[in-house]
Design brief:
With 140 residues, this protein is α+β, with helices and mostly antiparallel strands. 39% of the residues lie in helices and 24% in strands. It is built from five helices and eight strands; from the N terminus they run ββαββααββαββα. The strands form two sheets. Strands 1-7-8-4-3-5 form a six-stranded antiparallel sheet. Strands 2-6 form a two-stranded antiparallel ribbon. The longest helix is centred in the last third of the chain and has 16 residues, at 119-134. The two termini are 24 Å apart. The model has no long low-confidence stretch (mean pLDDT 93).
């Protein structure tokens, strides 16, 4: 099971490709899966973790019509990606639009996945947690 941590600032090229941080590339040598993530980011899953997510989604689909629609959306918006020799993956335009990605992309480890964020959206999302930590708050 791959574990991801760390934070990296990258850019998209003119073709909508992102170079994965070298630290993360090994987990995606055979490819990976890009999905819409919570908070307006994109989630990049290693194959084994994506399989676990699909199992969880299949179980969730039986919980009612609203859950089935979320599962449909998740499956329909997922894309398989394979890094090229330079470690670049292509981000489909519909996923770039969902995440509000422009040229600058914040790539960070989120334990069981890699997340791709618009830097401004990321700062707004984590500002309250950073303020709590700065005031002496605990991680747990």
């Amino acid at each position: 099971m791959a574990r991801f941590f760390g934070r990296f600032e990258h850019t998209l090229d003119e073709k909508g490709r992102l170079t994965l941080p070298a630290k993360f590339r090994g987990a995606f040598e055979r490819g990976g899966y890009l999905t819409q993530g919570g908070g307006g980011c994109l989630a990049l899953w290693a194959p084994e973790e994506f399989e676990q997510q699909m199992e969880a989604m299949a179980a969730r689909a039986g919980q009612g019509p609203a859950e089935r629609d979320l599962v449909r959306l998740w499956a329909a918006s997922s894309a398989d990606v394979v890094p090229d020799r330079q470690g670049r993956i292509s981000l489909p335009s519909y996923l770039r639009t969902f995440a509000g990605l422009g040229v600058e992309v914040l790539v960070h480890g989120a334990i069981d996945r890699v997340e791709l964020w618009d830097p401004e959206r990321w700062r707004a999302r984590v500002a309250p947690a950073e303020a709590r930590l700065a005031e002496g708050g605990e991680w747990w």
